[in-house]
Design brief:
By secondary structure, this protein is an alpha+beta fold. It is 24% helix and 33% strand. It has two helices and seven strands, in the order E-E-H-H-E-E-E-E-E. The protein has helices at residues 13-20, 26-34, and strands at 2-6, 11-12, 39-40, 43-44, 51-52, 57-60, 63-69. Strands 1-7-6-3-4 form a five-stranded mixed sheet, covered by helices on one side. The longest helix is centred in the middle third of the chain and has 9 residues, at 26-34. The N and C termini lie far apart (23 Å).
Length: 72
């Protein structure tokens, strides 16, 4: 499992996929999410603008990324 640390309150699902390297473009992230290929906290999520907060976990193609924060 990997972790991605954010400096804000949240990050959108499609942006996290790009930032983590799960896909190489926003268009590709949108396609994968809308086709039900991405899981958020163990359930399929089709909302590309879904706000992820520390503790949330996404899964795509046997890769798991957890969101963490360095803000108190």
């Amino acid at each position: 499992m990997e972790t991605i640390t954010i400096n804000e309150e949240f990050i959108r699902l499609d942006n996290l996929m790009k930032f983590s390297g799960m896909c190489n473009s926003g268009g590709r992230a949108k396609y994968l999410i809308q086709n039900g290929e991405v899981k958020l906290n163990g359930e399929i999520c089709t909302m590309r603008g879904k706000k992820l907060r520390p503790g949330d976990t996404i899964e795509y193609q046997n890769r798991t990324v957890t969101v963490t924060s360095n803000t108190p």
